[in-house]
Write a structure and sequence with these properties.
It is a single chain. This protein is mainly α. It has 4 helices and no strands. The longest helix is centred in the first third of the chain and has 31 residues. It is elongated.
């Protein structure tokens, strides 16, 4: 087993811990905003997002189930992702004092 002579001072450890806490808060706010934005999607878009991202169904399988080309599914997903990104940005901007 190897040992290391590296030592970190308390100030560095405090700084790292504070940065980690802020990072977690940031992603927690983003996740909450994303969940709210997904809830606002129309039923078909929400079902598509859930099928692909929650259930893990491949896009080509969803396309087959819906009777359309995989490219159609990818186009829909691109549109939905853009709408969700804009929604999340708006929510985060509204929450920032």
């Amino acid at each position: 087993m190897c040992s290391s002579d590296l030592e970190f001072d308390d100030e560095l450890m405090h700084t790292l811990a504070a940065e980690r806490v802020e990072h977690v808060r940031h992603w927690s706010r983003r996740t909450e905003a994303l969940e709210l934005c997904v809830e606002k999607l129309d039923g078909a878009s929400r079902a598509l997002v859930e099928a692909i991202y929650t259930d893990g169904t491949p896009a080509h399988e969803v396309a087959k189930q819906q009777g359309c080309a995989p490219k159609t599914i990818y186009n829909k997903l691109n549109f939905i992702r853009r709408a969700l990104a804009e929604c999340v940005q708006r929510r985060l901007a509204e929450a920032t004092p």
